[in-house]
Amino acid sequence: MNAVFKALSDPTRRHVLELLRERPMTAGELSDHFPVSKATMSAHFSVLREADLVHVQKVGKTVVYALKLSVLEDALLGFVGAFSAVRGPAQAAGPAKLVAKGGVR
Amino acid sequence: MMQRKQAMALVLAAGYIAAALALKLAEKAGYLPHGAAVRALQALTGVSLAVYANFLPKRIQAIREPMMAMRMQSVLRVSGWAFMLGGLGYAAASLLPFADAIGLAVLSAATAYVLGYTGWAYVECSIARRRAA
Predict the structure, then answer these.
(1) Which domain holds residue B94?
(2) pLDDT of A58-102, one tens digit each?
(3) Is A67:A55 a contact under the CB 8 Å cutoff?
């Protein structure tokens, strides 16, 4: 359960799960939605895989990710997402972006 | 892994039967009125269904066809949510008058919704496959 909370604590990983709610996607398709390096995305995928929140399937050379959330994990994702929206996008984005904007002293 | 899952399922089934027997014995011994034992079993059944439904979306399988994979994922999610809410509704109905009828109506609604959604997803996949062929 700790791994699930750790995975859901990061806004990028939550966004990945929200994208996967629509349909299974390849690692490349998911990475295109984020302005971060492939290594960083790979680390995020690894955390999600360890928490058993995504199903991984290799199709040829591509890796396809599908959602693997239990109903409670799904509800928790929705709850955390709604809570982050209430806090505001700047705070929800995490400390790194706040520092970049000069929001944290 | 599979053996562990089967063992877990057997333990849960044994627990359920033991709880039902304990309620029946308590009723026969006069510790519980008939209605209370039936309602307690209804609540237990509803909660068991909700727990099972919680893990339903985790049973996702590897499917190569993108359309099928997308629909399989959504069918599992919808089934999980519907049966979890249905199970909790069935359990909650045990506290109300006409518990049998209300519980049955809630479960029937959840089942009908899942069957309807699954049928729609199947038809959509069949049409997409025919178009692709």
Answers:
(1) 4-132
(2) 888 889 999 999 999 999 999 988 887 776 554 544 444 444 444
(3) yes
CB contact under 8 A, A72 and B54: yes
**Residue numbers in B near A52 (CB within 8 A):** 58
B73/A72 CB distance under 8 A: no
Quote the minimal CA–CA distance from A58 to chain B in Å.
Answer: 9
pTM of the model: 0.82
* Interatomic CA distance for residues B44 and B97, integer angstroms: 17
A27: buried, middle or exposed (CB in 10 Å: 19+, 13-18, 0-12)? middle
Sequence-ordered list of residues with C-beta below 8 angstroms from that of A97, at least 6 positions apart, any chain: A90, A103
In chain B, how many domains are there?
1
